Amino acid sequence: MKVEVLTTPGCSNCKVLEKMLDNLGMSYDLIDVTEKSEYLEKYPIFTAPGLVIDGKLEFTGIPKIEDLKKFSR
Predict the structure, then answer these.
(1) How many domains does the chain have?
(2) Which domain holds residue 51?
(3) Under DSSP, is residue 10 helix (H, G, I), strand (E, B) or coil?
(4) With a threshold of 0.70, does the pTM exceed it?
(5) Tell me, what CATH number does 12's domain have?
(6) Neighbours of 69 (CB within 10 A)
(7) What is the DSSP string of 27-67?
(8) Within 13 Å and on the Cβ side, how many CA atoms surround 19?
(9) CA gap 31, 50 in Å, rounded
(10) pLDDT digit string (tens) for 3-39?
């Protein structure tokens, strides 16, 4: 499973999501969308963070921990 967190500089909600993923033992890549605009073309998020799992935008903003647990293994 490939997990990507779409972030922006200084995003406090992004840090919250990173901590949630860490607590669930999920590995992920951080993608700064201000540096990689092609991600915004592919995943048009209007609020950070965006959570992409296996190439599909699953969440924007902070998801509920119960929803995240469905993806943890």
Answers:
(1) 1
(2) 3-69
(3) coil
(4) yes
(5) 3.40.30.10
(6) 12
(7) --EEEETTT-HHHHHHS--SSS-EEEETTEEEEESPPPHHH
(8) 6
(9) 10
(10) 999 999 999 999 999 999 999 999 999 999 999 989 9
